[in-house]
Amino acid sequence: MKFVILTGMSGAGKSTALKMMEDIGFYCVDNLPIPLLEKFVELSSLQGGELQKVALGIDIRSGQALDELRTVLERIRANGVPIVILFLDAEDGVLVKRYKETRRSHPLAGGERVDKGIKLERERLAFLKEEANYIIDTSRLLTRELKAELDKIFVQHQDYKNLFITVLSFGFKYGIPADSDLVFDVRFLPNPYYVEGLRSKTGNDREIQEYVLQFPEAHEFLDRLADMIGFLIPNYITEGKNQLVISIGCTGGKHRSVTLANELYRRLSGKKEYGLKIEHRDIGKDALRGK
């Protein structure tokens, strides 16, 4: 028998995740009253029961009863029932944006601003995040990427770490990404923009890759960057960080930064210690502006 408590911040994607859990074979119950939790677990655990995998959605909607959840979980575990806690999170700015897009009010905001409700919710859910077996930050995850993370945990049973890394290329002339944790400037490399026949291509094209990577400085930069990130990652994991955005920028975000971001992504791929994705924020902006 496997019990999963699916919880987290309002607006972080819990409803979507619960549907995904159902698709992979979990019996899902959303917003079960906490006073009924022990009885539900007891009935579900009866020998010969049909429920082998259960996911329970529990969050701030439980009201004051949420304060009893820690004690309830302790009693359930004391009876030999293992419970896994999956906590979905997102950055405050992302949550505010999602609430504005859906025009919904935060359950704790009342007549106040959404960000006040988010602050109160973080305080009340802090104990669940501390006890969580898995934390997934959905700030930059597409729906299919969230599904892949859940599949990795509950279907493939892979070793899972809560750190998710985004390698992001960008152009300095469009501004440094506000959510960057680490920013690297690769404008020291020769610019393909000024080479005949290369201007219209991008770092996803072989011609640009060959041009940028012909310079020894590009390889030395990648070697040193990969070495530093290799040192940082286990320390970030120990510290409890669950999102890391590594931004690599050139002038327009189309040639050098894309090439080196792709190379860094390739070097970081295949590790079990973290999730990984790549984005090219500004790769098409010159084309859109007719430049």
Observed structural traits:
single chain; 291 residues; alpha/beta; Rossmann fold; 2 domains; five-stranded parallel sheet; four-stranded parallel sheet; 9 strands; elongated
Instruction: Report the portion of residues in β strands.
Output: 15-25%
Order of helices and strands: EHEHEHEHHEHEEHHEHEH
CATH superfamily of the largest domain: P-loop containing nucleotide triphosphate hydrolases
In the sheet with the most strands, the strands line up as: 2-3-1-4-5
Count of alpha and pi helical runs? 10
How many separate domains? Answer: 2
* Morphology: elongated
Number of strands: 9
From the structure provided, what is the oligomeric state, counting identical versus distinct chains?
A: single chain
> Helical amount among residues, as a percent range?
40-55%
What's the mean pLDDT score? Answer: 88
Radius of gyration: 23 Å
CATH class of the largest domain: Alpha Beta
Query: Largest sheet, described in full?
Result: 5 strands, parallel
Describe the structure in brief.
This protein has 291 residues and is of the alpha/beta class. It is built from ten helices and nine strands.
Give the helices and strands, then pairings.
Layout: E1 2-8, H1 14-23, E2 27-30, H2 37-44, E3 53-57, H3 69-78, E4 83-89, H4 92-102, H5 114-131, E5 134-137, H6 143-154, E6 164-171, E7 182-185, H7 206-212, H8 216-239, E8 243-250, H9 256-268, E9 275-280, H10 285-288
Parallel strand pairs: 1-3, 1-4, 2-3, 4-5, 6-8, 6-9, 7-8
